[in-house]
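Task card 7
Instruction: Convert sequence to structure tokens.
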Amino acid sequence: MIRVAAVGDIHMGPDSEGLLRPAFDTLPDCADLLLLAGDLTRHGTPEEARVVAREVRDLPVPVVAVLGNHDHHDEQPEKVTAVLRDAGVTVLEGEATVVECAGGRLGIAGTKGFGGGFVGRSAGEFGEPVMKEFVRTTRRSADSLHAALKELGEKGCTARVALTHFSPVADTLAGEPPEIHPFLGSYLLAEAIDTAGADLAVHGHAHLGSEHGMTAGGVRVRNVAQPVIRRAFNVYQLGAD
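Output:
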């Protein structure tokens, strides 16, 4: 059995220094690793990223993260990523990593993702160049997620997790205004997960959404945005009966 702790949308800043560290220090008792599902900062500044870094530095479990839209706001995602990596965090964007756990080898494929909507109510690559680029941005993200998951499948991992910020399904958006669903995720991410294969998909972003969902292919989806789970992290078990 592999125990996966996950949380997103912690939106840390200077005034939240040390808020989560006491809970994170308990991770070895209940989890094999920690996944951070984006929106780790409020405005994407290096200063805010350093607050996050101090929160997770030298934790006794591996930490794997993707960035969210807030982490891009100040247009310095490379600096935010560098600060987190310096603290020992594995930050993924269209990439994969493998974590050796007591219960086996866990593969994590991560990307921020993007919007576009869901089957029957989604945007298409048609019309103005800016609209085409909007959808192509999501498609490129989904393609990179697919490639990363497929790579992990070839490595013989015990289990695979898809880590994104934007949602792959509409299920976990229940509670959010339907008008903003196209800006909260895309079915293209779910297609990538189903065609490449995964045991769990974890995302954030939808603060008013719900925790539980599933792709059309039967992959469990969990919205771990902190306003949804209302705690420092949730733990999910893989490989258990």
